[in-house]
Amino acid sequence: MPTSNVTFCRCARCGENVVGEGTGCTAMDQVFHVDCFTCIICNNKLRGQPFYAVEKKAYCEPCYINTLEQCNVCSKPIMERILRATGKAYHPHCFTCVMCHRSLDGIPFTVDAGGLIHCIEDFHKKFAPRCSVCKEPIMPAPGQEETVRIVALDRDFHVHCYRCEDCGGLLSEGDNQGCYPLDGHILCKTCNSARIRVLTAKASTDL
């Protein structure tokens, strides 16, 4: 901050006149004795030194930094913009997904039971149920917030993976709509009937 010598002005700290060349300085639009212009915390003299003014109070650089909140990730003081999330403070560049490490500043995110921060996509990849056919997570398509999961015989399916095990027909639409399980197999009505006929015929020949 610029300083200048002043004469016959009152010191903003002690209230006494500032008299004599080199005994005073100006800062924060106020006049101080050189000996009175000190850090509000450690009392080190600030004339000619970098300082920070907060609500008309002067801080030396180390004391000012000690007043700042620390980032929950890197533990360093946050000198500029503070990002607040989950009740904690972060540097914007430190607030990242624990899996892909992408910055989540301004991006939707979620937190798992352990308090770890995830982008929405990686959260679904990690915790979404997996299709029993393709083994991939059942999660919303990009840009979507919801998806459909089919559960049959205590197994999870994508809509496009929910097919008859014999003919491969989709069980969620068309003439084969509906599941007719048999002996733990996912079947359409036609294939279910065919298997029953085979089993019945075999049982008859075994008699």
Automatic annotation (TrEMBL):
GO cellular component: cytoplasm; focal adhesion; nucleus; stress fiber
Gene transcribed to yield this protein: LOC103253528
Family that this chain belongs to: Belongs to the zyxin/ajuba family.
Intracellular or extracellular location(s): Cell junction; Cytoplasm; Nucleus
Protein name: Lipoma-preferred partner
Ranges for domain LIM zinc-binding: 9-68, 69-129, 130-198
UniProt GO MF annotations: metal ion binding
CDD domains: LIM1_TRIP6
UniProt keyword terms in alphabetical order: Cell adhesion, Cell junction, Cytoplasm, LIM domain, Metal-binding, Nucleus, Repeat, Zinc
Recorded superkingdom: Eukaryota
